[in-house]
Amino acid sequence: MKLLWYINRLRAMGPAEMLHRLGERGRRAISRRRHQGWTRYAAAAMHPVWPDWPERIRNAPPAQRATIAETADGFLDGRFSALGQAWPEGAIAPPYRDVWRLDPVTGSAWPRAERYCFDIDFRHDGARGDIKYVWEINRLHMLPALAAQFVLSGEARYCAAIEAVLQSWHAANPPFGGVAWASGIEVAVRAINILVTLDLMGPALPEATRALAGQVLDASTFWLARFPSLYSSANNHLVAELAGAYLIARARGGDGAGPRARLLAELERQILPDGAGAEQSPTYAAFTCELVLLCAEAARAAGDPFPQDAEARLAAFAAHVAWLGPNGRFGDDDEGRVIALGPVRDYAGAVAAAIRAYCGQPEVAERPVGLRTFAQGGLSAWHGAMNGREVALCFDHGPLGYLSIAAHGHADALSLTLSVDGKPVLVDPGTYLYGSGGTWRDWFRSTPAHNTLNIEGRSQSSMAGAFNWSHKARAQLVDRQDAAHWRLTAEHDGYRRAFGVNHRRAVARAGDTLMVEDRLVGGTGRVAEIAWQLAADIAVRIDGSRAICSRDGPVLVIDFPDGALDLGSGGTLPGGWVSPAFGHKVPAPRLRWRGRVDGAGVITRLSVPAR
Q1: What is the CATH T-level fold of the domain 374-607, as seen in this structure?
Q2: Is 451 exposed, middle or buried (0-12, 13-18, 19+ CB in 10 A)?
Q3: Measured between alpha carbons, how far is residue 30 from residues 24, 33, 37, 113 in Å?
Q4: Which of 403, 401, 398, 347 lies closest to 373, judged by CA?
Q5: pTM of the full predicted structure?
Q6: pLDDT in tens, 522-555
Q7: Where does the chain hold its CATH 2.70.98.70 domain(s)?
Q8: What is the C-alpha to C-alpha distance for residues 171 and 32, in angstroms, rounded to an integer?
């Protein structure tokens, strides 16, 4: 498996990247001998990056103040939760010695700092659990919450907890041993959380503790510059690394011109002109925008604001999120945050609201109405009324993902999601797990798991690892007809190589019904499957070729063409499953139609009944 992973990664690389990787291996070998330990890393004087943040915390609305208090007090009481998982009782307690390498699910521990970070096989050694959990606590998200609560209360116990955490982390994670140093994005996010904490605490944090934090930041600056994420890895990891480098430079009194210029260039690449994220994941786009927004606020505070083009690109993302509405969940979602003062139900929406505030716009977006196509992102959204009910639909006709490996995209071309009265009905299945997901990781990003057509249970694109795709389906919008009874037609070629056909799907409004027409173009026809994954709280009753979907009464009626129809929920794959949060999966009804599809096509009717 490990050898296959390396082969597939090499296939995704061009000559320039191969040379870069060889150089990277050489730098890793040198750093093993020369750069470990705290001796060479100094604690430079730090300047405020966001000088108005303490006052902003004091003026926070009551609900946010309550969330901050709950998060900070929970940590003091020994509670820490992330990625849908609570850490074991007793693990969160001073001196926090082994918590930095503890997997909260398996109870296993990752190697101590005596092990060089690049010698730890976190990609293929699944025995200890999913590396995401250990990385998450090493991001030190608890520090800003503790600092914010100190600002609000002035109680010394929050300052003492910050001191204990920083002292413990510094002692347990010297450069560059242990998994906490193994990934640049983790180094960067941790550095940003430390910077926020230093700004909020100011002189209240003892100088000795500030010096430890300064050493961490100095080592982080060195490491981020030495091992950047480039070429096929230059996705949101690179954005985080550049943001971390820029913000540390600002804290040290510099202008961070180099990282700033590259960060602005990455914003242009990774947030498309129409506001969609190039990684084909709204939450990953939100993560990128949160990083850029933090840098933009720092630049504005320093009197050196980002250009208007950058502000416009952030604003385009905020507008895009408003159109996604309740259906704004597709592609990978690891629930990553940059700053986490408490749980957030709608992360992309929260980032969009912060962007609007930064741009001087109303915090609450106007409710979208009508049909909107995001041409660069490859998505069409419609918001309207059917039988007196609020309906929102998203139709995915975009690329698989970003860069050569499309790491966080799912094989969901031409899939539909639908909400009624603001609640999801036809849903994207979610993510579940990353490195330790195995078969489940493959399922949740496969074509059969999504609301589209598949042939013989195969995906449109070929998986080449947990974060890599080889053959990639190419999707495009073929036609758009605007009217009260609008029509969208899109096509992908993912089945051309194996089956000699393209999948073409048209979605049209006909009164209170949505007509979904599926065709296989270019051949004589094949037996295919069309799946519809419903939300976990939907009940389904089948009556012949009709499925009545209910949540406190009928919300959707699906009329299928002639063929075989069955309903699954839970069970063995391909059953019906959705992942509401990272690390969690729950049974949910999944309708599966099977029959012959050719160039003439088959039509599925989605009707929204009156209340």
Answers
A1: Beta-galactosidase; Chain A, domain 5 (2.70.98)
A2: buried
A3: 10, 6, 14, 18
A4: 398
A5: 0.96
A6: 988 999 999 999 999 999 999 999 999 999 999 9
A7: 374-607
A8: 19
